[in-house]
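Friendly challenge for the regulars: who can give me the structure tokens for this chain first? No prize, just bragging rights.
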Amino acid sequence: MQSWWMQLDAEGSRLELRDVDVPAPAARQLLVRMHAASLNRGEFVAGHGLHGPAGSWKAIGGEGAGEVVAVGPEVSGFQPGERVMARCSGAFAEYALFDEAETMLVPANMTWEEAASIPLTFLVAFDMLVLQGRLARGQWLLINGVSSGVGVACLQLANALGAQVIGTSTSQAKLDRLRLLRLNHGLHTRQPDFAGRVMDITGGHGADLIVNAVGGSVFAENVRCAAFEGRLATVGYVDGVLRADLDLEALHARRLTLFGVSNKLRTKAQKAAAVPRFAAEVLPYFASGAMRPLIDEVIEFAQLPEAKARMEGGGHAGKIVLRVAAA
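First reply, four minutes later:
Bragging rights claimed.
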């Protein structure tokens, strides 16, 4: 089978399309013929933990969807022929292994490309907004980089939860597009200069939850935006800024909570723990058609370098998806 591999170090990344053996499922694993897999910026950024040590080669792709072709020992919940989606390793391949604990059935109304845009991105959003962020109906959510895959997922999930959403972006055209997804307020900016506008929009209340998908360049400004007992989630640092000033007076007086969202150091069991609740609470929105992933573009399997370049160029809004067709 064909599989995309990547070598990543401080100088950048190199992609290579390899011919490798089809893997065999181990205990509690499924062998899946891949139909689609989506790109995530983090796996192409050094330090995010979605790849191996610097300089090593690794099969890449973190989420996708396809058809079960075989099951390993001790698998009881899935069978060959079923449409499934999951977070996984090596999703940019004609076949991939899914852990049963991470696997979910694809709702009947969804395309392969839509299904491939859910497992990692929306589980990250669920972690930030629900499990750690405790976002409640009527509260204010601020999303830095709202047009990213994770940003759009947070916007859609926040709408389902009944929150009010403010998003920042360097593109006014992207903000205009996201108004169709009920973005309440879009702030067009390339600088950490949005705190005053956030406070004006919220009537001086501030943001109850802030999702930082940009990095250290906006961290201090986010603290200035935070409401009393506000929560600040850090999910990425595409700006490459890994250090930021922390206003301890604001942290103390406003009883702020800071937390990170990463699977880098989590065990398989820890990563999979939220999947049943996600399937019960969020998948019904997709099954009913109330939510659909925002797909920017679908690109053919052999064109991964072009898809990666488009994502890194920042011209997309939502997910870029790789269409896979196994031989």
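The mean pLDDT is 94. The first helix runs from residue 112 to 115. Your move, everyone else.
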